[in-house]
Amino acid sequence: MDDRTFRDAMGKFATGVTVITTVLGDEVHGMTANAFMSVSLNPKLITVSIDEKAHMLKKLVQSGKFAVSILSEDQIEMSMHFAGQKEKQDVEFDWISGVPVIKNALANIICDVYDTHKAGDHTLFIGEVMDLNISQGNPLTFYSGKYGRNLLNQGQAV
């Protein structure tokens, strides 16, 4: 099968949208990602998958810590910014345990890098959850290459 067919098939799995952030010195780095999942309750572990060509890969290795901010349905612009789909804008971050997080996200999960595994053209970063923050709201979703809002209520992506 070709790459496009594989991507199209993977796009049939509706996901939430996250922004992965870290800090090196005084500089905050972030990227949009939907390849995120919980792994273990004891210890509390999550995983994010980062493309080998992404600038974020080296940043996570260097910093040894990161945050996953699960975006709300009102944060499409934030997702697009960190996906490089919008012109650069100033982003004001909240900080939890010394790590920048996206304000007003549904959840901010702060992690130390627990382990990494190279898998094909990506590296899986397993993070040990050190702190978190939870808010209320509806999730920003992604399905078949499109952003959506609350797919259950609308029946389709918008």
SSE diagram, text form:
Layout: H1 3-10, E1 15-16, E2 18-24, E3 27-33, E4 36-40, E5 45-51, H2 56-63, E6 65-70, H3 76-82, E7 93-96, E8 99-102, E9 107-119, E10 122-134, E11 140-143, E12 146-149, H4 151-154
Antiparallel strand pairs: 1-11, 2-3, 2-6, 4-5, 5-10, 6-9, 7-8, 9-10, 11-12
Briefly summarize what is shown.
The protein is of the alpha+beta class and 158 residues long. It has four helices and twelve strands, in the order αβββββαβαββββββα. The protein has one domain (3-138): Electron Transport, Fmn-binding Protein, Chain A (Pnp Oxidase, Chain A), CATH 2.30.110.10.
What's the shape? Answer: globular
In the CATH hierarchy, the third-tier topology is known as Pnp Oxidase, Chain A
Structural class, by secondary structure, is alpha+beta
* Highest-level CATH class: Mainly Beta
Domain Flavin reductase like: 10-149
Protein name: Flavin reductase (DIM6/NTAB) family NADH-FMN oxidoreductase RutF
Keywords: Oxidoreductase
Pfam family, one: Flavin_Reduct
Describe this structure in words.
The protein is built from 4 helices and 12 strands, in the order αβββββαβαββββββα. The protein has a single domain (3-138), classed as Pnp Oxidase, Chain A (Roll), CATH 2.30.110. It is 17% helix and 48% strand. It has helices at 3-10, 56-63, 76-82, 151-154; strands at residues 15-16, 18-24, 27-33, 36-40, 45-51, 65-70, 93-96, 99-102, 107-119, 122-134, 140-143, 146-149. With 158 residues, the protein is of the alpha+beta class.
